[in-house]
Amino acid sequence: MRSKRVLNIDNAGRIMIDAIIIFVIVFASISAFITIIVTGHDIYMLLAGLRDLDLTHLQDIANEIVFVFVFLEILRSALVARKRPEEYIAALGEVGFIITVRDVLRSSIIGSSRDIVLSAVGSAIFILIIYITRKYILPVRRSETYEREV
Fold first, then answer.
1. Which residue, among 82, 121, 130, 85, has the nearest Cα to 100 in the 3D structure?
2. For the chain, how many helices (H) and strands (E)?
3. Most buried one in 3, 10, 83, 120, CB count within 10 A?
């Protein structure tokens, strides 16, 4: 049987984690919204002919679009973490994978073969992390949670 003090610390920890998750959800939502507005403005400026299409501008638009995906992935992982905290590790790996794919795209636009290889290796490492997490870690955590509930 757990003592009252341990239960109070446990409840305080859960409240703190919930507050952090709510902060992450609000911050990621605001960041995604602002990034969508900036991306829309840049695309409008490009289509209206108010700005010339050059490599730098194209790279900025690609970065903004990837950042929207990153913010939405962070938002999704925070929402999942409220229901199943063990999924948060895999979600962070997915965010890292998206960022490395962005680096591969950036490197291919710039044309630096060394950067493309390094980014591709980083992507492969994140794929391996996601695979190990989903294949070996999450099933064990789910079964432990199920046994605790029963």
1. 121
2. 5, 0
3. 120
